[in-house]
Write the structure tokens for this entry.
Amino acid sequence: MKKSLSILFFLIPIVFFPTGMNSQAMVDGDTVYYPESHEVEYDQLVYKTAVSIDELSFPINENLALRVYYPVDLDPGEKRPLVVLVHGGGFIGGTFASFFNNAEALAKLGFVAASVQYRLCKRVDCLVAGGLSFPCNVSWGNSLVPSAYIAATDVADAIRWLQDHASDYYIDPDRVVVGGHSAGAWTSLHMAFMDMDEVTEICPSCGVWPDYLADSLQTPDGIRAVINMSGAILDTTWIDPEEADIDLMTIHGTHDGVVYYGTAPVYPCCNTFAVPVEGACPITARHRSLGGSTYLLTGQDYGHDVFEAGWWEQNEIQILWFLGKSLFSDASFDRHVSIQRSSPVLNCPPPFQPINPADACGLPQQDPGIVLFENLVSTTESALPQADVRVFPNPATDELFVEVSFSGGKHPATWEFQMHNSMGITVLRKTDFRSTAGSIAVHNLPAGIYFVECRTPDGVFYRGKILISRAH
């Protein structure tokens, strides 16, 4: 039986800005706009020299580097938010080069973005585990937890170095976002929310021993948000009430066998650790209970790899939405979005036995935020045509009928109709509209919410939402 088409239509008010208004991003309800595109450069340099994490009786120093990408076409004195990215690898591997492309992409949108090195564990158990890509036998108390602590101190020092050199890179030191994947997410969470009193609860030697453990954790000022991708925290109560003003985004798969989405020891596939850590759901619950602005993106049936093709494209857009809402809007938010995988990922590779996947956090779900890489309007309201726009379905032909009535003597010679999906991707564009009415085929579009725009070369003169639902 042929599917029938029905469409619900919602109006969204247009927000106008004066000509020439300079803004890196703008937020209109659930939509974030990134109108800028920049030429960027980068510097790679050593921000710190520190003692290696090893078992030798004499200290060996290592240089720690960062690479910072920044727009080069800003006006003197401009300040832009800083996004610091921290790589994963279980504190025994990984490289800061894994985030170079992401940092460059952020800089092109007007951010300053840095990927940072931190000290990796070079104790014997860590070296063996790294060589075999088999982390199950890394010592919890002597290697894993102390290494995680040292990573947090290194990233904190990297942020302070960047803040101290803010004028060299257009950095706003009071708007800093830190985030990462796996061990990098663990590092970001603990660096932002853990203090020395909390450290000593699980690592009494941290901050007081000689050599590498002598470093004291001091969270930098200016942390505005944390992005946690497949990470965990040792104790959610370490997120203090006064820290609820740090916005939090968590991306985590329900079939993660490395860091559990709920509460379980780290590396649950290994079944060798006993101390539970707190994943996406308990972290989000704690932050919400304190009234913080929180975004949980659940990867239903996805695993540890948030960069998996088909998932990362959606994650990347939602990270931009989170950055826009956190840094360019005063409105709070509380959002839970679920992305469904076509089939469950294998959460534990052979020879490990699969673990029971986590249940998705039982929070109300919303649609993903919309991100568009354009200005709300590019001119003043008076320069745009005034129009009454109607969009309605023709179920018999699976088309949208668009009718526009222009007024005020400003009938454009041509205009354009666009539709974007809920991820901000343009899915339909009909250009060179010369009449005031026309039909647009939508039979290839799945059911869902779409964002409609009518525009001329001068800017957008109409914006609305439609919901396409299909029934057999």
Summary: Residues 1-22, 375-381 have pLDDT under 50 and may be disordered. Helices lie at 100-108, 124-132, 140-164, 166-169, 183-193, 196-202, 280-289, 312-328.
